[in-house]
Design a protein that fits this description.
304 residues, alpha/beta, UDP-N-acetylmuramoyl-L-alanine:D-glutamate ligase, eight-stranded mixed sheet, four-stranded mixed sheet, 8 helices, binds adenosine-5'-diphosphate, binds beta-D-fructofuranose, PfkB_dom, Ketohexokinase
Length: 304
């Protein structure tokens, strides 16, 4: 196993890199209306890619892993991610158009309406993942998608963890249950940190972040921390021992763009937990940085 200390190891974010086309409008259009946007810009998107950029900006050595279009628009999204300092040397290329989201940002409210096209991009497989040298990583976060393959990838990490000698070499595993359409329950027994979105929580019938973390704690493995972000209500978290914390949101002067608020929250929480802030500190960090993000377009210049 590696002799390197935990601090010198990487955080790996596994999941989607896509193209986001943001249309900024001063009111939400009605069906069949012909509107001009007040601004339009392209930026890289995808939960794992967004979180990787935020983590890297906060000073964590961060790598992104996923399938990437080998066409011009794929390289441009990848380059954009590299400008945040994200390492990308293990990505898997595919000759396929880049998955693309058309996003309507209502600048009056900051709301983001996303229409996403996968454009048949293949998902990362456990076979792709198996070629990594896991001694390089301290934390691996899997975006909650293609659950069957993600389950196999997590098993590779679990096997690795069973063999390590020093506790410093154990890799922390996390995932996010974001979309209700993925059958994420299979991942619950595997992760050390579980992020749950409001959308997923509501699809389970939970009415608040507090209820979500308390009820899901009973379904995760022993030792797992559960967090749930709830938009402008902030977020809640629960330790494996059952200590519950709530943190209020940090509203910016004006909310202009909430796209990727959850991805930013996850990144800042991971950053905090890697630095030993404990759950309460990490929740605060998550809400503070996500609040900053909501007050600006994109992910540049977020700071701790
Ligand atoms: P998602 O992007 O997954 O929908 P949420 O909307 O739950 O994520 O937001 C994640 C975090 O971002 C929240 O816990 C909160 O801290 C922050 N946040 C979201 N919306 C706002 C807002 N309107 N004002 C301030 N902070 C916000
Ligand atoms: C934000 C985001 C966007 C992307 C969409 C994919 O959380 O990652 O960047 O277009 O979600 O679902």
């Amino acid at each position: 196993m590696s002799a390197a200390g935990k601090e010198s190891k990487r955080v790996l974010m596994v999941g989607l890199l896509c193209q986001d086309i943001l249309n900024l409008v001063d009111h939400y259009p009605t069906e069949d209306e012909d509107v001009r946007c007040v601004n339009q810009f392209w930026q890289k998107g995808g939960n794992a890619a967004n979180s990787a950029c935020v983590l890297s900006s906060l000073g964590e050595t961060t790598e992104y892993l996923g399938t990437v279009s080998s066409r011009a628009e794929g390289s441009s999204a990848l380059k954009e991610m590299q400008t945040f300092g994200v390492l990308t040397e293990h990505v898997v290329y595919s000759d396929c158009p880049i998955p693309t989201s058309c996003v309507i940002i209502n600048t009056q409210t900051g709301s983001r309406t996303i229409i996403h096209g996968t454009r048949n991009m293949a998902e990362l497989t456990a076979e792709d993942f198996s070629s990594l040298d896991l001694t390089q990583y301290r934390w691996i976060h899997f975006e909650g998608r293609n659950t069957i393959e993600v389950c196999k990838m997590m098993e590779i990490v679990e096997d690795f963890n069973k063999k390590v000698v020093s506790p410093d070499d154990v890799i922390t595993l996390s995932t996010e249950c974001e979309k209700s359409k993925y059958n994420m329950g299979d991942l619950f027994p595997k992760v050390d940190v579980l992020f749950v979105s409001k959308e997923y929580a509501e699809s389970c019938g939970f009415a608040s972040a507090k209820e979500t973390v308390k009820k899901l704690l009973k379904r995760v493995k022993k030792g797992c921390t559960v967090l749930c972000a709830w938009g402008d209500q902030g977020a809640d978290g629960i330790t494996p021992e059952g200590a519950h914390y709530h943190c209020q949101a940090f509203p910016p002067e004006k909310v202009v763009d909430t796209l990727g608020a959850g991805d930013t929250f996850n990144a800042a929480v991971i950053w905090g937990l890697c630095r030993g802030t404990g759950l309460e500190g990490a929740l605060r960090m998550g809400c503070r940085i996500a609040g900053q993000k909501c007050g600006q377009f994109g992910y540049k210049n977020l700071h701790s």
